[in-house]
Write a structure and sequence with these properties.
Layout: H1 2-26, E1 28-31, E2 36-39, H2 41-52, H3 54-72, H4 78-97, H5 103-128, H6 132-137, H7 139-163
Antiparallel strand pairs: 1-2
Length: 172
């Protein structure tokens, strides 16, 4: 039985990492003022952390977003994306873990996602890539991306749970 659970978790992590990477790469809107882009990364990160739990979200959110940066021509952000989106998924998933059917809890998880993405990119970009003023310019777009993504991820999770009643039983 333990082998089946381990195989399921590994499969979920692999598929979820790919989902995050695809959501990140498939829709990219360039933002010339920041030399970056807006994507649907956070939609996948929030969905995965709500659907499969905080630890699957941590690994998949980090790996998927870092892999997308490497494939998409933004290798300088790969480590930052790994840390920020991994932490985003972990915290949002932990918040929702105990009460995954409560809309208020899911909204709080989404708000935490926005704070983690904005604060994480700001801090880590200042430490490793650019100046404070340059990183500060990206905060509104990061807030928009993570806010819209969190809402999409929350709605996607709600739709999947409604369609599959035992969905929560596969969380890690």
């Amino acid at each position: 039985m333990k082998e089946k659970k381990t195989a399921l978790h590994i499969s979920l992590i692999a598929l979820s990492s790919a989902l995050v990477a695809v959501f990140t790469i498939a829709v990219r809107i360039p933002v010339p003022a920041t030399a970056g882009y807006i994507s649907l990364c956070d939609a996948a990160v929030v969905f995965v952390s709500y659907a499969f739990g905080p630890f699957t979200g941590l690994i998949a959110g980090g790996l998927g977003s870092a892999f997308a940066d490497l494939l998409g021509g933004y290798p300088q952000f790969a480590v930052i994306s790994f840390a920020v989106h991994g932490l985003e998924a972990l915290l949002a998933g932990l918040i929702v873990k105990k009460n995954s059917q409560n809309i208020l809890t899911m909204i709080i998880g989404a708000l935490v996602s926005i704070v983690v993405v904005c604060g994480g990119y700001l801090l880590l970009e200042v430490l490793f890539i650019t100046t404070f003023s340059s990183a500060l310019v990206e905060v509104p777009m990061n807030a928009l991306q993570s806010g819209v993504g969190s809402v999409i991820g929350l709605l996607l999770y709600a739709a999947v749970v409604k369609g599959y009643r035992n969905f929560d039983s596969i969380k890690w």
